[in-house]
Amino acid sequence: MDVECKYCRALRFVAERKVGSSEANPVFSNCCQGEKLTAQQIPLLQDPPSFLRELLTGSTPRDKVFRKNIVKYNNALCMALVHTNWVNRGAGTVKL
Questions:
Q1: How far is CA 13 from CA 8, 24, 31, in A?
Q2: Angle in degrees, 0-180, between the axes of helices 70-78 and 61-68, rounded to the nearest 10
Q3: In a domain? residue 93
Q4: With contact defined as beta carbons under 8 Å apart, do 66 and 57 qualify?
Q5: Residue 5 lies in a domain
Q6: 9 and 40 housed in the same domain
Q7: Does 30 lie in the same domain as 59?
Q8: In angstroms, rounded to a whole number, what is the distance separating the alpha carbons of residues 20 and 14?
Q9: What is the domain range of residue 14?
Q10: How far from the centroid of its chain's Cα atoms is residue 75's Cα?
């Protein structure tokens, strides 16, 4: 990520810019919709609970194991929040 969006300050790759915008003055559409949102309008993240903060910043063996495996934990839990309606389309076919 080598470019900062001038509107929301998100870090982006220059290749992600909108078609027609230049490399010298890139405009991005999928972080803040161009000028529609500014950094002041985007809410700041709240501090994590103390237990999670300790896992993210601590130096105990447990904290180090957590950070080593954080991507695995995220991947395992990311589908837990998906809500869908299952449609059975016959033998072996399911539509989400």
A1: 14, 13, 12
A2: 60
A3: no
A4: no
A5: yes
A6: yes
A7: no
A8: 12
A9: 1-44
A10: 13
Burial label, 42 (beta-carbon count in 10 A; 0-12, 13-18, 19+): middle
Chain centroid to CA 6: 19
The tally of domains found in the chain comes to 2
CA 12/CA 25 separation, integer angstroms: 13
- Residue 87 phi/psi, 5° resolution? -120, 120
Within this chain, do residues 54 and 20 fall inside the same structural domain, yes or no?
no
Q: pTM for this one?
A: 0.44
Question: What are the E-state strand segments in the chain?
Answer: 3-4, 11-12, 87-88, 94-95
Residues 34-87 have pLDDT tens digits of 667 666 676 777 888 999 999 999 999 999 999 999 999 888 887 776 666 666
| Distance of alpha carbon 74 from alpha carbon 19, whole angstroms | 33
Together in a domain, 6 and 24? yes
Q: How many C-beta atoms surround the C-beta of residue 5 within 10 A? A: 20
DSSP-assigned letter for residue 30: S
CA distance 18 to 15: 9
